[in-house]
């Protein structure tokens, strides 16, 4: 025979799955919430999104090419996700240079300093967000008006900020001013970051990812259930001091965090059981910060803290082995 | 109700191109190379030498220990040499070269097609004859069948499971055999049951072979104690432990044999070979081989004499396609890529798969994104990503604790990895090292 045959070990076939396809499915899942953000906040949302995505891509490219001296991996789609998620997590009024600093923190510190995709311990977009929240507290908590509001208004408080003020000043829940009703919040007539305001559209994206097997149910369900149960207990004890648990579910970044950030494959546990523990931890820390902490919202901190526990969870929570012990 | 195994599994495209092709008898080759090691265990010892005249069915290499088996000549003619040549492993193996002259069979073999249903031998006699006839597991593992039929002290077989799963994509040899030799297989099952002293046998067949399920179900009415269990299509259901789990719900403990849960598993091809050995006095020297692939002109199922070169089978299926990149002995998930067309068909060859150039290349390896797909598809409940890292970093004690030796090398992890990581390659490497570690500890 004239030519040589390929000889390699089995298996000789491969599924059609690729990293890029998985990442793109996450991006598709974010599109409904993205469109809603643009609808509510107008062109400012487009501006923040573009700056965030472009700077994340550029930073990954520059660091990989000139610092790490490896082949840039822009096409895998992971920098794109970080860019969109970072934009989802900030007020659309944020100045361009702060967004770029956020992107540097996310990509440079959160991802590439660990070695790039797959090696990072913490969710890169959240590293960026928390870095900005601590460094630029004023800009990061000034929420722009949405199209639903009085044109005279220049900024608005998020529901969680109103609730936190109430707790600090001892105002009963029933007398809090400016809280949107539950259905408005669920649909997304709400204030906050660009990507977090519509719980329903985030759930829609989550269902798409579940269907496409990009995420598993364990992480989001355990986070939401924990928040529901813990806040429910406090609400039953004192409904004048603590808001309705369902309100907690639909407000703030909880849905965005539970569905899109905590489920990040790289930084979440490998087994379903591990994901339940991880989700429980995130839910508990989130609701503790919301009710007793200094910040109105705690999901970002909760996810980052539990990210640090993932290697430990993976070490001790093993899949069910065939054939027992 | 469809059953399947409980942990992991994948469903690769089935591509059973040759499922409607009747088994054809391949014309006799001009020469054969019959390796003396076609089974797990000690190689047989050649008992012929250059210049000897041999007949079809004559013993040409003798079993050398209990876990070993006889090798018979598949042709009649003259032994030209006893020498080394590569088998499907790629390594040179000892074997017997014979130039074919005519087709003269040893006396006593019943060459008729008549079904012999009456069983006139007792259990120990059956085991003895199986051993003499050189029968091994024809599903691909090639473990000598007589060894399985005699349980170790203190253990008792309760049920015989017959593997008609054929979960490997492309392969159809077992499927065709079930359709064309159903009665013979049923008698073979009765013989195996008698040899083991059990009164229950279950044939496991995947749901993508409804014709075989229907036919064998009908046959069950005539044979006591045999039933068919339809199974959901799921790879690697043909794995011994997975099949036992699917049919009985039991899990063979880590490191133990199927007999630990009272089960013995045999392939449908093996049951057919047992029928021929006992009812027809015919030793194992031919088998059904699927020749297939997307570029193959005539995907086929051939009845092939052991020792026939790969090239002869490819020729009979329409010749070697121009853009062939890889030839696999066996299926695409667990088969071996062969380096030469001279590699002979042996007792364990279930198929030849010709892959086209573009299917033959592996994709570029990317970083692990910890998606945990490998963990969720592993039928043994292992963590392939972790075992790969432990293999790569040569941390073998930890790999042993993470049960690397439980890996059945089904390849589901590598198949499913979106980053195209060579998980199984590194796990095999680790298994080799850990296996050596365990053996040196026992000394």
From TrEMBL, chain A:
Q: Where in the cell is it found?
A: Cell membrane
Q: What GO CC terms are in its UniProt record?
A: plasma membrane
Transmembrane helix: present as a keyword of the record?
Answer: yes
What keywords appear on the UniProt entry? Cell membrane, Electron transport, Flavoprotein, FMN, Membrane, Phosphoprotein, Translocase, Transmembrane, Transmembrane helix, Transport, Ubiquinone
Query: InterPro entries annotated for this entry?
Result: NqrB/RnfD, RnfD_bac
Q: What class of enzyme is it?
A: translocase
Keyword Acyltransferase assigned: no
Pfam families from the UniProt entry: NQR2_RnfD_RnfE
Modified sites of kind FMN phosphoryl threonine? 158
**Required co-factors:** FMN
List the signal peptide residues.
none
* EC number(s) per entry: 7.-.-.-
Q: Name one GO biological process term.
A: transmembrane transport
- Bilayer-crossing residues are 22-39, 45-63, 192-211, 223-239, 245-263, 275-293, 299-317
Membrane topology, as annotated = Multi-pass membrane protein
Q: How does it assemble?
A: The complex is composed of six subunits: RnfA, RnfB, RnfC, RnfD, RnfE and RnfG.
What the protein does comes down to: Part of a membrane-bound complex that couples electron transfer with translocation of ions across the membrane.
Could you say which protein family the record assigns here?
Belongs to the NqrB/RnfD family.
Q: Which NCBIfam families match?
A: rnfD
Q: What is this protein called?
A: Ion-translocating oxidoreductase complex subunit D
From TrEMBL, chain B:
Gene Ontology MF annotations: 4 iron, 4 sulfur cluster binding; electron transfer activity; metal ion binding
Which organism does this record belong to? Draconibacterium sediminis
What processes in GO biological process is this protein linked to? electron transport chain
Q: What is the lineage of its organism?
A: Bacteria, Pseudomonadati, Bacteroidota, Bacteroidia, Marinilabiliales
> What is the name attached to this protein's record?
Ion-translocating oxidoreductase complex subunit C
Q: Which InterPro entries does the entry link to?
A: 4Fe4S_Fe-S-bd, 4Fe4S_Fe_S_CS, Ion_transpt_RnfC/RsxC, Nuo51_FMN-bd, Nuo51_FMN-bd_sf, RnfC_N, Soluble_ligand-bd
The subcellular location is: Cell membrane
Cofactor descriptive note: Binds 2 [4Fe-4S] clusters per subunit.
Give me the Gene Ontology terms describing cellular component: plasma membrane
